[in-house]
Design brief:
It is built from two helices and 17 strands. It is mainly beta. The protein folds into two domains: 6-90; 98-218 and 253-274, no CATH class. The longest helix has 7 residues, at 150-156. The two termini are 57 Å apart.
């Protein structure tokens, strides 16, 4: 019966060492074991060429900066060999996060004052063009990563936090900018320098979960009357030339102080702690 050559990883033979080199840099050494079965007449060259055994210069799967430097083969029987492969290299310098805070002002149109009263005339006509400077707390975080997942990070640029982050409640934080720079070593990427900018928005006249929602006064040229949607008319039954305030159910609101506001979700919700920026 013929024997097909086969190399299989032996997890029980794994070992590793970590040592400190110059300037606090960590160096690593990893040894993996493989069991090999092959025909008894295989030469050393044929044994070493069996598919599945790492080659000299291959990258270590968990740290691309570590390269395979040695392979040792021991014959344990007529058709059975053990191969021990050794990887060596530096561990990337994974730093603590560098954090900087600053504020950023954005000008937004507002539809009610600080106390929540609708901005309208004495005759309940909406007043357009009033704005307010809103200050975001902007946090810049810089740190190193072994690997990054750009497609996953891309989805964060259209999201807000689903959890508490940097002391702010869920919904307050939004990733607004992301940069990643590759640092090369031994012709492979050693690690990445990542800089993330996160804006934390004060929930102006809303709840924390809706801090980044779009907000608008509930008004329009149509109103609901006796369950039917009709064109809003003035006291002379002429169509209104400006929108009227509406209640939550679509009927007309005649008291400006009771103006109802609509809020619309603009971003998805993701866990910001899962980014590992502050761990």
């Amino acid at each position: 019966m013929s024997i097909s050559p086969l190399a299989t990883r032996m997890w029980s033979r794994d070992s590793f060492d970590v040592s400190r080199a110059e300037a606090g840099q960590k160096k690593g050494k990893v040894i993996e074991g493989y069991q090999i079965t092959c025909p008894p007449d295989y030469t050393d060259l044929q044994v070493s060429s069996i598919v599945g055994i790492p080659e000299i210069g291959d990258q270590y799967s968990d740290n691309p900066a570590m390269l395979m430097i040695n392979r040792n083969f021991q014959r344990m029987g007529p058709i059975y060999w053990i191969a021990m492969v050794t990887y060596e290299g530096d561990y990337p310098k994974l730093n603590r996060p560098e954090i900087r805070w600053q504020n950023s002002k954005v000008t937004e149109p507002i539809d009610e004052d600080f106390d929540g009263r609708a901005i309208v005339t004495a005759n309940s006509e909406p007043i357009e063009g009033i704005t307010k400077e809103i200050s975001d707390a902007v946090q810049t975080i810089k740190r190193n990563y072994l690997t990054i997942d750009i497609p996953a990070i891309h989805s964060y640029l259209d999201s807000v936090s689903s959890d508490s982050f940097a002391g702010f409640g869920a919904g307050i934080s939004r990733l607004t900018d992301y940069q990643a720079e590759a640092v090369w070593g031994n012709e492979t990427i050693d690690h990445w320098i990542v800089t993330a900018t996160i804006s934390h928005r004060f929930p102006y006249n809303t709840t924390a979960e809706k801090a980044w929602y779009a907000r608008t006064r509930h008004e329009g040229y149509y109103e609901k009357s006796n369950g039917i949607i009709i064109r809003a008319a003035d006291d002379h039954q002429e169509p209104m030339t400006s929108p009227v305030l509406l209640k939550a159910d679509g009927t007309r609101e005649t008291i400006s102080a009771n103006a109802h506001f609509l809020e619309f979700k603009r971003y998805g919700i993701l866990s910001y702690n899962a980014l590992g920026l502050l761990d």
